Task: inverse folding
């Protein structure tokens, strides 16, 4: 009788622990770009018209899967993957580890951070690249080819920096960033404490030294595991107003976009505006470079 009671107690305790685990399981957001993926080195890998595109979609899924496996080892029970490159229809659900949700297509207000909110415990950036104007970053650009620089409250940021500011708005820590050596160093300047995984060494904007894929995957998995396991949400960092300047490569877009309410044009090639929230700032930056097309 005593032994039976003890056994029952043990079973109940184990069940309680399991349900506690499920309750405290972490929710993780993974934003996946393509330029910084391990094994990717050429323009013909980056778009659907490219001869090597099919191969690079698989490489993109492989780096993502390493992050998913690591995140789960670190306690993630709910994972959202946001395809964050170009058409944003690069990742195929069937190539990803089972059980994750996938946000697909580029027609979204918040682009690379679409779907991110206060409900997440950690953010992971996979396959990121250096910001526009960086001479040594592979495929260095911000948003699209039309942007020369983006400044938020006077600070120049690339895509990774901007996405990190968005995560900070929600109080969700960016725990891992992967990409070439130049890209991850730039993101780490904004996302303090982030674990960086160097997938390749940028020699300049076109040449690169690729690292062994299995080794990169192992390092991504380990960083995601440790990053998610140690993720601690912070108080949302909300310090409006956000003064934004978007400097374009030519005056064409500013010429048209300055008609938008609240938009200023402090220089022929530059648009400036003030937003009360970081998500609003983010959406308007994206609107300017992506949806106003002079061609
Ligand atoms: Zn991209």
Result:
């Amino acid at each position: 009788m005593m032994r039976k009671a003890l056994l029952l107690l043990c079973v109940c305790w184990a069940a309680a622990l399991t349900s506690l685990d499920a309750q405290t399981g972490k929710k993780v957001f993974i934003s996946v770009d393509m330029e910084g993926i391990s094994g990717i080195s050429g323009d013909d890998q980056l778009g659907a018209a490219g001869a090597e595109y099919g191969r690079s979609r698989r490489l993109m899924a492989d780096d993502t899967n390493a992050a998913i496996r690591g995140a789960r080892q670190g306690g993630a029970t709910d994972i959202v993957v946001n395809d964050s490159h170009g058409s944003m229809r690069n990742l195929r659900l069937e190539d990803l580890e089972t059980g994750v949700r996938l946000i697909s297509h580029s027609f979204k207000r918040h682009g690379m951070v679409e779907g991110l909110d206060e409900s997440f415990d950690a953010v992971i950036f996979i396959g990121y690249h250096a910001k526009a104007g960086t001479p040594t970053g592979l495929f260095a650009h911000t948003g699209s080819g039309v942007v020369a620089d983006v400044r938020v409250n006077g600070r120049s940021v690339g895509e990774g920096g901007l996405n990190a500011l968005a995560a900070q708005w929600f109080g969700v820590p960016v725990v891992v960033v992967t990409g070439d050596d130049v890209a991850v160093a730039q993101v780490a300047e904004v996302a303090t404490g982030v674990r960086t995984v160097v997938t390749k060494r940028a020699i300049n904007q076109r040449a690169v030294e690729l690292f062994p894929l299995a080794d990169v995957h192992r390092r991504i998995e380990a960083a995601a595991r440790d990053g998610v396991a140690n993720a601690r949400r912070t108080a949302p960092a909300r310090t409006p107003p956000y003064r934004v300047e978007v400097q374009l490569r030519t005056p064409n877009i500013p010429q048209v976009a300055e008609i938008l309410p609240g938009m200023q044009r402090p220089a022929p090639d530059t648009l400036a505006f003030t937003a009360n929230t970081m998500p609003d700032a983010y959406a308007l930056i994206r609107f300017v470079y992506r949806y106003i097309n002079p061609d």
